[in-house]
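Loading example: each entry is read as two labelled lines plus one structure line.
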Amino acid sequence: AQSVTQLGSHVSVSEGALVLLRCNYSSSVPPYLFWYVQYPNQGLQLLLKYTSAATLVKGINGFEAEFKKSETSFHLTKPSAHMSDAAEYFCAVSSNNDMRFGAGTRLTVKP
Amino acid sequence: DGGITQSPKYLFRKEGQNVTLSCEQNLNHDAMYWYRQDPGQGLRLIYYSQIVNDFQKGDIAEGYSVSREKKESFPLTVTSAQKNPTAFYLCAAGRGPLGTDTQYFGPGTRLTVL
């Protein structure tokens, strides 16, 4: 069975600092990988997805993630945090007929 | 304006009552999904439907029921058999089978059992 582990339920950074949200997965077949963002009391919005093309994936709002097969990781980064980035972020792994979400990481951005 | 609509945004229910959550999409996607979100647990799949008049149980289907009579609509009923129904419920739609493509989410319904 597939699974996703997001290291750190809460991450706090200063405005302008690097954002790094960690995601490790397990899957017996080549997976699709996703990062979604959720603002308070809203649904999830896709940030980016990996579908076996380029290993470095660029998404919306300046975020990007790198697929590292050897490390089974798909960490999300942004060079410079903005106050509007404060939200909860979910990593997800999928293959045919199965999709698993991580428990989420809440990002706080300090002024 | 394409998307997923869920209603109501907030719902209160007395113990022992059934309640139905609405989900409508105008994206023309074949697949639709219902998830439950609890703090610190991410999203868990309740039911999904790949095509009209067909649906499958997800990981936590007990105490829930669904129907898919129209492509655009996928209502979820939370029955009195669901022991702990207070949660945030999210509906989603996608083009392909589960796990093959992006899912597009609605704004959610927060259900509170009094």
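Residues 66 and 73 of chain A are 8 Å apart (CA to CA).
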